[in-house]
UniProtKB/TrEMBL annotation, chains A, B:
Residue ranges annotated for the HTH tetR-type domain, each copy included: 8-68
Keyword Cell inner membrane: no
Ranges annotated as DNA-binding: 31-50
Lineage, broadest ranks: Bacteria, Bacillati, Actinomycetota, Actinomycetes, Pseudonocardiales
Protein name: TetR/AcrR family transcriptional regulator
Gene3D superfamilies from the UniProt entry: Tetracycline Repressor, domain 2
UniProt keyword list: DNA-binding, Transcription, Transcription regulation
PROSITE patterns recorded: HTH_TETR_2
A family per Pfam: TetR_C_33
Domain of life: Bacteria
Protein species of origin: Amycolatopsis albidoflavus
Length: 188, 188
DNA sequence: CGTCGGAACTAGTCACTGACAAGTCGGTGG
DNA sequence: CCACCGACTTGTCAGTGACTAGTTCCGACG
């Protein structure tokens, strides 16, 4: 494809390149000039679409929250909180590039409309999953915070390889075992 | 105090300044030149003590893991896993500057001896706390991962103000409620 | 008491980055 | 066919990390 003045789909191309870099080297390695080089445009072209670096990362994060919402919404209707928790962890591992940006407020424009909309979608999907945990004996707010904390913490620590080796190398199995402890109770 | 050629305790001074900046503006705002200006030395002086930026942040992280170990070791002997969990969250909130660096491997020199030693200390302190959870009915490795994931996730999300407002603004109370769900079980 | 070696710090520099301004290109609607 | 405007380029500036070479001072040793 010949080098044309108008790229045609620069925004998407930069976004894709950013996700690739994120996956390989993390958020710190993402810079506009390198992405421009990869895509074959001038160093200032990406700024036209994203404003600045935080605008770019915000777009990645928004895409990530949409993907997360998709993941949770696509769970079979029979799924319970346990399955949703495992899905959350799986999402984090499979879409590490997105996940590592989604929860870094300092990198993002918190007031971006697209980001807020995507966050809202994923929050609703999570609320829906947690609703199944409301058995009357526990405060649903506490239960929701606990469930989210557990899977979010597990995903975070797993991605950092901070967990002890004993937990094995099968994310889904480990996540399920951990989530089961909360959902089914320690003393079933 | 007159400006002398030898600062006297530059390493500690830079470290303190770094923690201050971290607390105010997060890791991204920490740069060697600004710290040098704050402390009143030339722009390259900090590098003499820390090598590079990651060396500085590694020193902060090591200090953080030591502080965490101190916190956990100072718990009264009667404390159970629940109290340890609350202490973990309290530590994260009270020492946010340190906490925000401790679990960012990409910012650190993972092979730094001081860092490894401090991590080892805090790991042992956590293992000790989790030992109280070994009641035979659950795999201790799973229980440990679950407990750590829960409090780590809660602390992380709390610091990001990502949790819904319903959980209140009392960290300790909220952390205790959430941790209780895991320790005592959802259906007591 | 001198001197001398090395640690602590300064000064200068380079490559790289984000951000901005001004100009150019080219598709599209009137 | 032409004016407009979004898409992109070119040029530039300040700030940063990292490196090198030079300067100052402390303290140990003869």
């Amino acid at each position: 494809m010949a080098r044309r003045y108008h790229h045609g789909d620069l925004r998407q191309a930069v976004l894709t390149a950013a996700v690739e870099v994120l996956g390989d080297s993390g958020p710190a390695a993402v810079n506009l000039r390198d992405l421009a080089r990869r895509v074959g445009v001038s160093h200032a072209a990406p700024a036209h679409h994203f404003g600045d670096r935080s605008g770019l990362l915000t777009a990645v994060a928004a895409q990530g929250f949409d993907l997360l919402a998709d993941t949770l919404e696509e769970l079979p209707p029979s799924s319970d909180l346990l399955e949703a928790g495992v899905a959350y962890v799986s999402f984090a591992v499979e879409h590490r590039a997105h996940f590592e940006v989604m929860f870094r407020p300092e990198l993002l424009r918190a007031d971006d409309p697209d980001l807020r909309a995507a966050q809202e979608r994923s929050n609703q999907a999570m609320d829906w999953a947690i609703a199944g945990f409301r058995d009357g004996s526990v405060d649903p707010v506490v239960a929701g915070a606990a469930a989210w904390s557990l899977v979010h913490g597990f995903a975070t620590l797993w991605l950092q390889r901070a967990l002890p080796a004993d937990v094995g190398d099968d994310v889904e199995a480990a996540a399920r075992a951990v989530a089961e402890l909360l959902v089914r109770g320690a003393n079933p």
